[in-house]
């Protein structure tokens, strides 16, 4: 049995572009669990607004680097860690780009590789570059001002970080895009597409 921890933001949590949260059986981590089989445990630890390393002045507790070691203890031992973060880093008030988001991912990787106080082995890491942001709608328009162009550079910086740190890499923008309803969040089809793309990667890591 393998424990797979999905560490992300609202795209992992299951935020629906029309508002609210998708049902449990519609979110990509839960779809992944179904495809892997009941002998494996897949944990959805997505949190809306979570960043890589940035403290959000408007929402407490969103700094992903500060919670990762606690998550590995709470759910440990974790065999495979899937990290998909960076979309929230591109909010205009952080004033950073794709390169800085990738360095935030790298800081999380370093924390994951730190010795465990419980002697847990470090999990295998899968880095998923978030999809390109489309034209944000509604309240997201100002929040993601300038983020469309920045998001298109995420995959190249993330791939470099994944390679340097011996992580598996998946570029989600090559297989899906956010819903046109809000330009940021997944629809049902995107959740399904991501789970299907991750399934063979995770199965291969389980069998390594």
UniProtKB/TrEMBL annotation:
<keyword id="KW-0378">Hydrolase</keyword>
<protein>
    <submittedName>
        <fullName>SGNH/GDSL hydrolase family protein</fullName>
    </submittedName>
</protein>
<dbReference type="InterPro" id="IPR036514">
    <property type="entry name" value="SGNH_hydro_sf"/>
</dbReference>
<dbReference type="Pfam" id="PF13472">
    <property type="entry name" value="Lipase_GDSL_2"/>
</dbReference>
<dbReference type="InterPro" id="IPR051532">
    <property type="entry name" value="Ester_Hydrolysis_Enzymes"/>
</dbReference>
<feature type="domain" description="SGNH hydrolase-type esterase">
    <location>
        <begin position="6"/>
        <end position="185"/>
    </location>
</feature>
<dbReference type="InterPro" id="IPR013830">
    <property type="entry name" value="SGNH_hydro"/>
</dbReference>
<dbReference type="GO" id="GO:0016787">
    <property type="term" value="F:hydrolase activity"/>
</dbReference>
């Amino acid at each position: 049995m393998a424990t797979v921890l999905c560490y992300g933001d609202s795209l992992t949590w299951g935020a629906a572009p029309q508002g609210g949260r998708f049902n449990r059986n519609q979110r990509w981590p839960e779809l992944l669990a179904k495809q892997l089989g009941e002998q494996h445990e897949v944990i959805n630890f997505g949190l809306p607004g979570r960043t890589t390393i940035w403290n959000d002045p408007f929402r407490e507790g969103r700094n992903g680097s500060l919670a990762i070691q606690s998550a590995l203890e709470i759910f440990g031992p974790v065999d495979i860690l899937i990290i998909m973060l960076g979309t929230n880093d591109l909010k205009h008030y952080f004033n950073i780009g794709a390169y800085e988001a990738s360095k935030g991912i790298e800081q999380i990787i370093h924390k994951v590789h730190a010795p465990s106080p419980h002697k847990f082995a470090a999990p295998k890491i899968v880095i998923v570059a978030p999809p390109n942001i489309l034209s944000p709608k509604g309240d997201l328009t100002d929040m993601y001002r300038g983020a469309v162009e920045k998001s298109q550079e995420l995959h190249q910086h993330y791939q470099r970080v994944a390679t340097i740190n011996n992580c598996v890499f998946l570029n989600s923008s090559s297989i899906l895009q956010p819903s046109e309803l809000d330009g940021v969040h997944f629809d049902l089809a995107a959740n399904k597409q991501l789970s299907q793309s991750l399934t063979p990667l995770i199965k291969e890591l389980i069998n390594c």
